[in-house]
Write a structure and sequence with these properties.
alpha+beta; 16 strands; 4-stranded mixed sheet
Length: 331
């Protein structure tokens, strides 16, 4: 049995030794990994180093990871750690108070425990966090971008799959088409409404690449990642996405691109999802809290089912809609 012990670089987590048992495919990661618990925030450089540590643990591709707290698991543990710490660093660079940081992380990850210890650690820091030289490194996805700065939908080039199996560009999709939603049992839904449908508008999108699939969507649009709704603007390599085939795949690259068209179809499917370019995404965005959006769209769904189709051609600018209703942007 070969035992390799090394020290994690750059991070000051309480247990900074990595123990690798190659013959068994096991890595004992100590507090560099947690399972089911919030990670405590750190100074900017240590935060960034901790994220790099988690990304390196993903690359190790061990069969079994033993965390400092919580149950052992597979590669999903360092994958989630890289996502969480990356999101935490983003939140910490714009939070003004320790309590603001803790509240937002708890809202993003409600199933984790340890908010008290997270807040205690946060109170030792000066928010917002900045690197020692005062200049943040360049990055492809900026978490400080306003959720409403680029439209809230898909470009015309994005594709969906009809019930017939035919693939159709978003710019060709019409009310009444039945599209695959990526739900269980090859579920599909009939398009009854577009909250955006602008043919020639040029906008900025987040491009996410995972397992040979490439999807473009607005930064404020939600994707499904490990059972949670996460806005695309928080995309990070290692973040898990669900495919239309039901697989979980890791994001390999995130970048900002400019594309043409703004389309946001809604279907009658109860899943409130769409399979766009092979990736399952939510119909909803940060413009309106999804729980409120479902309620607001109920009259349109009822009208469509009753055969009142003119309502389906109503065009609503998502951000203006939210502002008129006085709704707070979801975090």
């Amino acid at each position: 049995l070969t035992l390799e012990i090394e020290e994690f670089e750059g991070t000051t987590v309480p247990t900074s030794l990595k123990v690798t048992l190659d013959d068994l495919g096991v890595i004992i990661a100590g507090d560099a990994l947690l399972n089911g618990f919030h990670y405590p925030p750190q100074e900017y450089a240590e935060f960034a180093a901790h994220r790099a540590t988690a990304e390196d643990l993903v690359k190790d591709d061990a069969t079994y990871y033993i965390p400092g707290r919580g149950a052992p698991g597979g590669i999903e543990l360092p994958t989630f750690a890289a996502e969480y710490i990356g999101v935490g660093l983003d939140v910490a660079t714009r939070a003004r108070l320790a309590s603001q940081y803790a509240d937002e992380m708890q809202e993003l990850y409600p199933d984790l425990v340890g908010r008290g210890k997270m807040l205690q650690a946060a109170r030792r820091l000066d928010f917002p966090l900045v690197p020692e030289d005062g200049v943040e490194p360049a990055r492809t996805i900026s978490p400080t971008d306003s959720p409403g700065d680029e439209g809230v939908c898909f470009p015309a080039s994005a594709t969906v799959q009809l019930d017939s199996g035919k693939r159709l560009a978003m710019g060709e999709l019409e009310v009444g088409d039945r599209v695959r939603t990526g739900g269980a049992g090859e579920e599909s839904g009939e398009v009854y409404f577009f909250s955006h449908k602008a043919e020639g508008r040029r906008s900025q999108f987040v491009e996410m690449e995972a397992a040979g699939r490439v999807v473009r969507l607005s930064g404020s649009h939600y994707v499904w990642s490990q059972g949670r709704l996460v806005p695309a603007r928080l995309c990070r390599p290692g973040m898990m996405l669900r495919t239309s085939d039901g697989e979980e795949v890791a994001v390999e690259a995130c970048r900002r691109v400019v594309d043409v068209g703004l389309y946001a179809p809604h279907t009658l499917s109860h899943t409130r999802t769409l399979a766009v370019d092979g990736i399952v995404v939510s119909e909803f965005t940060e413009a309106v809290d999804p729980r409120i959006a479902v309620w607001l769209l109920a009259p349109l769904r009822a009208a469509y089912r009753a055969g009142f189709r003119p309502m389906s051609r109503l065009y609503v600018e998502g951000h203006e809609w939210a502002k008129r209703l006085g709704l707070r942007t979801a975090s």
